[in-house]
Each structure stands twice: as C-alpha cells, then as structure tokens.
Amino acid sequence: MNRFAIAWLLALLGLALAHNVAIVSDAPNNLEVSYLLRWVLGFAVVIFAVVAGALAYTVWKFRARSGEAGPGEEGETLPPQFEENARLELSWTVIPLVIVLILFVLTAQALVKITRPIAGAMPVEVTARQFWWDFRYPDLGLRTSNELIIPAGRPIEAKLTSGDVIHSFWVPSLNGKTDAVPGQTTYNRFMATEPGDYYGYCAEFCGASHANMRLRVIALDQQTFERFAEAYKNYRAPEPKTPSQRRGLEVFQANCAACHSVKGTPAKGVLGPDLSIFGNRLTLASGILENTRENLIRWLTDPGAVKPGAKMPSFARLGQEDLSALADYLESLKLEGFDFSKLPQF
Ligand code: HEC
Ligand SMILES: [Cu+2]
C-alpha cells in the first residue's frame, strides 16, 4: 500500500498549497473563483491519485524479477493478455463525463454570479495600453493611472477597453480576468471587502513588456475614499516652492506635457500616464518599480532599459541637474494627508 500512500500524500500536499494560493482575500468574486478552483483541484487530485497509483502498481507488480527474461529477451513471459473490457471502457468514459458535467454546471453558476451587473456599482473606465493602465472615474470626473483607487465595501464596475492591442485586466485576489479589446467594451465587476493594496497584472500577451504591465488596486475604507475623492476633485498641482522645483516645472512643460497630464496645469497629455499625484504613488512604470527617487531617475534616463519596448523616449540628454529638478517637481505633486503605503498587501 506504500505507493498509494505516497501518491495521496503528494496529492494532498498539492491541494493544501493550492488552497493557500487561491484564497488571498475574502472579496466575493475571489471566493467564488477559489471555490471553483477547489472543485477542479479535488477532481484533479483524485484523478492523479488513481492514474499515478495504477501506474506505480503496474510497474511494481509486473516488473522483471531477477532470473527472469527481460522485455525482448528470449524466454520473456508476458502477463495475461486480453482485448476489450466493457466495464473498464464504460467507466473511463462515464466518470470523466460526469466530472466535466459537474464542473460545467458549477462554472456556469459562478460565471453568472461574477458577471451580472450590480446595482449601485461605481463605474470606472479602464483603458489598457502598451504597457500601462489608465483609469477614469466618470461620476467623479477624475483620472488616475496604474494605481486604481477605490472604496472598499463598494462594488466596482470596470468598463474595459484597449488603446492598442488586446490586454487582459487581472487582479487575482479580487476577481477573475477579463480581456480588454480595442474597439470593444468588456466588464469586470468586483468588490474589495477590506482596505488594501491589491496586486494586478496584464494577463494577455501584448508585446515586449507584457510581463512588466502590472497595476495596483488601492482600496480605502469608505470614509477615507470619500475624503480622497473630494480632495482630488479640488486638487490643483501645488505651486513649486524651491528653485529646483520651479526648474522642474519648466522642464516638464517643455518635454513631458505633450504626453502626461498634471491636474491644474497646462499639461493635458493622454499618451502617457497621469502624473497629477505622483507624490502619493507607491509605484512607477505601471507597478514594476517602487516609487523612489533612484528608480525615477533610472526611468527618465532610459525607460527602454527598465521596460523593453516602453513608449516613452529617453531623457538622458537633459543632464543630471534637470533630471533631479524634474524629480523634485514630480515628488511635490502630492495630495497631503494620504499615505497608501501602510495598507495590507494582497
Ligand atoms: C512621447 C510621449 C511621452 C513623453 C514625451 C514623456 N513620456 Fe513619460 N511616459 C510615457 C508613456 C507611454 C509611459 C508609460 C510607459 C509604460 O509604463 O510602459 C510613461 C511613463 C512615465 C512615468 C511612469 C508613470 C507611471 O504611472 O508609472 C513617469 C514618471 C514619466 N513617464 C515621466 C515623464 C517625464 C518626467 C517626462 C519628461 C521629461 C516624460 N515622461 C515624457 C510617454 C511619454
Ligand atoms: Cu498588456
């Protein structure tokens, strides 16, 4: 019985591991998906145990014993040979069929639950681009990029589209993924039950930096979110305070404003991410780098080295002084009183 014990142990170990991986938050859709996953996994474990067990048993039982002729050798003895076994054939047809049917019904149920519109959901327009994410809040008239800030405990309806090729919006601990297709609108509806910093990424191969196309969903408790939305609505980029920030603003308007927007300034570009509250950002370059000065300078000096294929030109030619003035300016773009860095991570 040892071989069975080992197969089962391995299988159960896998189940335990996957169980931990699957349940990372108690967002309703996440629970729905991990519930399905456990069914799939349960069947997979049983099938694995049966198949691997049968294989191990056969290999052991019909092995060549010492002194016996091996395969192809003279005097080789074969185990009993037979053709057709109606019972066996019927069971390996019917059992998988039943399993697939059960999974089909469960999946259809889950799909209906996950995709149906939710009354009172907050709409967010998500545009995926090579290789970053743009978010607009039609009800609030706001825009953020790469970090989607939402209220916890309120359903969100993400209306997805793409500005170039097919991408896919995936925040595993909140919901399953949904493709973002150019010229089409698709929906991903989800809710974060607890405040947190939720990790997401593009789940459809979209070019050289597909793997570098990440995002964060920052869920704030209702009150903080309302405070944030109000403050951001009234927000105008603060006036530069130091000579370096002033220089940074000039360099920004001359070199960056065509592609980037900063609320309350003439910078209205939409080819690149919104930088209005850069100082509150946790990450850079669509979630792949921590927002530190060193990383910012690295990014401005050579975006293509940080993210192959990035659609932002290098600004190494500006020189260290102007780059650091730019960094001073960008870091000053901040909504005071909000720190997203202490949120639990999912
Ligand atoms: C031709 C358009 C263009 C110009 C000009 C441009 N950028 Fe960008 N920028 C982009 C694009 C596109 C991205 C997104 C790249 C990606 O993540 O793949 C980006 C990303 C960034 C990011 C990271 C933003 C985030 O949300 O993670 C920063 C910071 C940035 N740019 C600053 C600047 C500064 C400062 C300048 C001027 C010196 C500048 N950019 C000029 C197009 C541009
Ligand atoms: Cu993508």
What does this entry show, briefly?
This protein is of the alpha+beta class and 346 residues long. It is built from 8 helices and 12 strands. α5 (243-255) packs across α8 (319-332).
Would you mind describing this structure in some detail?
It contains eight helices and twelve strands. The chain has 346 residues and is of the alpha+beta class. It folds into three domains: 1-57 and 94-116, Helix Hairpins; 122-233, Cupredoxins -  blue copper proteins (Immunoglobulin-like), CATH 2.60.40; 243-342, Sandwich (Immunoglobulin-like), CATH 2.60.40. The strands form three sheets. The chain has a five-stranded mixed beta sheet. Residues 128, 131, 167, 202, 206, 210, 213 line the site of copper (II) ion.
List strands and helices in order, with pairings.
Layout: H1 2-22, H2 28-61, H3 86-115, E1 122-129, E2 132-137, E3 142-145, E4 147-151, E5 156-162, E6 167-170, E7 178-180, E8 186-190, E9 196-202, E10 214-220, H4 222-233, H5 243-255, E11 283-284, E12 289-290, H6 293-301, H7 303-306, H8 319-332
Parallel strand pairs: 1-5, 4-10
Antiparallel strand pairs: 1-2, 2-3, 5-8, 6-7, 6-9, 9-10, 11-12
Which features does this protein show?
single chain, 40% helix, 3 domains, alpha+beta, binds copper (II) ion, Helix Hairpins, Immunoglobulin-like, binds heme C, 346 residues
